[in-house]
Amino acid sequence: MSEVEKKAERQFTWGEKLRSLGPGFLIVGSFIGPGTVTSSTKAGAEYGFMLFWCVIFSVIAVIVMQGMSARLGIITQMGLAENLVKDFEDRPMLRNLLCGLVAVAITIGGFAYMSGDLTGTAIGISALTGISTRVIAPIWGFCILLILNFAGDAVKYLEKLLGICVIIMAVVFLVTMFAVRPNLGELLQGCIPHVPNGGLMTCLSLIGTTVVPYNFFLHAASAKRTWHSPEELPLCRFGTNIPMIIGGIVTGSIMVTSATVMRGMPVRNAMDMAVQLEPTLGQYAQPFMAVGLVAAGISSAVCSPMGVSYVLAGLFNWKTDRSDKRYTITNFLVLITGIIIAGYGFNPIALIMAAQGVNGIVLPVVVGVTIYLTNHKRVMGPYVNSTLERILGFAIFIISLILGISSVISLF
């Protein structure tokens, strides 16, 4: 915490602190989706505890980076994209290059994430009905399109309901993790960074499913609407850290449970993933996993097109509502692209893993932009990153860059 923040800090009531959790839980609701369940389960089943360090790294990264994004929104009262455009307005060539790079990276990541969310929801519905995911995914995509464009305030109530479902699923995984009694020695060894042979894409997927690039933009926009004064920065920090830690615990508990119960087992569908819940739920494990995937998929699928649209709106000065056709068309295109990819007939689990991997590849671009903006006094004034935040931010950027470049090289 900087000296300026210490002077500005005041005491907040528990009521204020609880209300401050909203923007953070919006982000957690976005990244706790089918991708998190699938990536964590597959990582534990295939590699045991070896990739647990990825979960730790993801939690640290999401706390640091989302905190930077939220603080940027409060201090400047502008979104991340708007700040990028403004900071480089006197260097038009560099501005256009950076804006184009961010736009392409976020759009590609959004397409991938959207297809993964639709497929994840379809896996859950397919497990309950027996209908092919190839049929369900496109139908569900059009349902999301209707929800986004015609449901209005109903979306908020839907997200709250689904948020409760996701929380219930998180509690069940957490209880199961303790019930199966994981080997603590192996778990501690998994905290040491190491990428096993063939595990690079799984590693990247674990990180990409938690540290989602467009969530930086969503958080900055949400924070500027929620808080308007530097004295509220401690409240914002509380409202960011607690939800991110809870999200990390969910991811970690899924992976630990899978590593203990499913090690060496193939993960091909929702029924395979449900095995890890049998110690606590027994015969109800499969329907519970199916419903959980549907709930998690809906909450994430609603956020995906909105995230891409917010980024492009900030970069190209659009309005962020249905009065601007460009914003609405972007929502539509992200959904349609996701529907086409999800309905093409790819293996559902492989598609979800690939979607998280794509997010991991584009992550260094957005991390670099966020760190750059929050390090500059002309943008943040006295509220620039602390020394610790600079060190952590640089480490996050380097690690995500190495993983991203390695995954691209491995493709060839």
Helices and strands in order, then pairings?
Elements: H1 3-8, H2 14-19, H3 21-31, H4 34-47, H5 52-76, H6 80-87, H7 92-129, H8 133-150, H9 154-179, H10 184-189, H11 200-208, H12 213-226, H13 233-261, H14 270-274, H15 278-281, H16 285-316, H17 325-342, H18 348-374, H19 377-380, H20 387-411
First-to-last CA distance: 44 Å
**The CATH homologous superfamily:** Amino acid/polyamine transporter I
Major beta sheet, specifics? none
CATH class: Mainly Alpha
From the helix content, strand content and strand pairing, which structural class follows? mainly alpha
How much is the average pLDDT?
Answer: 83
Helical content stands at over 70%
Low-confidence residue ranges: none
| Strand coverage percent | under 5%
The best one-word shape is globular
Q: Explain this structure to me?
A:
By secondary structure, the protein is mainly alpha-helical. It has a single domain, classed as Amino acid/polyamine transporter I (Up-down Bundle), CATH 1.20.1740. Helix 5 runs parallel beside helix 11 and helix 16 packs antiparallel against helix 17. The relative contact order is 0.22.
